[in-house]
Every structure is written in C-alpha cells, then in structure tokens.
C-alpha cells in the first residue's frame, strides 16, 4: 500500500491523551525535554484551489501531531466551490472532498480542542497555515516556530536570505524522501516538521547552525533532487502556484519576496 493509503484521513479527530513513541520518528535521548508548561504541536494544511491564482486556496485537509508524532487531528474538509482539488498535491479527488469531508466549522472545533494558549505551534511556513485556519495568537497558540526560518541562510552574492523546502530539509538532514512523484500528506509533513524541530532546533542554536551548513553543502553541490524544488513542479489544471517566484507567476496576484 502507498504511504498515502496508510495515512488516509478519518472523519473524526483522533485525540491521544497518553502519547506513545512513534517508531518511525524516535526521539534521541540527547534531545532536551519539552520546556515546562509548553505543549509542542505541529499543524499542516492541504488546500484546494478556488480559482486560478496562487492566493486562491482554502483548506481541504487539516492535520496535527504532538511532539512524539502521534496524530491529534486528521480531517478532510468539505469544500463545495472549488476550481481544482489539486489531486497531484493534496492526494484527494473532488469526490473524496465532497463525500468524506466534514464542515470547516467542525474541523476547526476539533483542532481547537488540541490547541490552546500553552502551545508552541510548529511547521514549515507555519504562518500560511495560521492564516488559512484563522488561528489567534494567545487563544489558539502562544508562539509559532517556522521550520523554514530556522534553516535559512544569507546569500551574500545575491544579498538575500534563501530558504529550503521541507522536502529538501528532510532529504538533506533525515535522508528521507518526501513529496516525490506522489502527493503530499499533512500527517507526514507534521511528523517530519516535529522531528526536525526535536533533532536540530530544540537542542540549541549550535545544532541548528551545523544542520544549516549541511543543507548549504548539499545545495552547493546541486545534490537536491529536482522534485524537492517547488517552482519546478508542473502546473495543475491551469492553477498558478508561483507565490514565491515572481518571474514565473502568471496569475497577476501579489508574490512574496523574501528579504
């Protein structure tokens, strides 16, 4: 069975009151313990397209895992008006979304049951997920940690910061292949994000710096596979996905330029 089949979403949120160690993503004894009074939770969202622009997105699959990689929430969200399900990315067909999805209100109620003002929210480009889910700092979470920001580096030649995709970071640091020829899974994204946090961010800035240096080394020798580079993905159903690539954008919506 494919990875996607193994991680097929359920129709109700799964709560794990007593976390158990996930064998696929073990925690080394060298890792620091969770800071007192803080719950570390990774959240990820897959979106369908509601139009042809790269900003035209709405959630269709919401996932959350705890610091051990245990599933807290795994829900398909029903979207009545979609331009494209972006099946090659989301792994969901139009029928999956319409027939198996719950309402966004129901999904958000389940998600907020496992979030709270004591949560450190972790994820790749987590601000996008926060915006899509309309989460409120101080109520739904305390702080947010962006995996991409932690491994960025300043390119002195181009005079700008450069970032690694989650699949690049997983490939370079965990020797893990993800987002290849198959679609994304928000459960996998959450588990990879939380493991990167546990292994290379929570132990301290020294460990993060060493990891970033390793990623730069892979980049400099052109060691990342083409499928880890987001702007090389093919266009699906005529929908622009070049939010971070001004020269490739064809929808006319504002692009994001990193400083």
Whole-number radius of gyration? 18 Å
**Helix count from the secondary structure assignment:** 9
Low-confidence stretches: 1-31
Strand content: 15-25%
Structural class: alpha/beta
Q: How widely separated are the two ends? A: 43 Å
Biggest beta-sheet profile: 5 strands, mixed
Total number of strands: 7
Please provide a brief summary of the model.
With 259 residues, the chain is of the alpha/beta class. It has helices at residues 3-6, 87-90, 94-100, 104-114, 126-133, 147-150, 166-174, 186-201, 205-220, and strands at residues 39-49, 57-66, 71-76, 119-123, 143-146, 153-155, 160-162. The strands form 2 sheets. Strands 3-2-1-4-5 form a 5-stranded mixed beta sheet, with helices on both faces. A two-stranded antiparallel ribbon has the order 6-7.
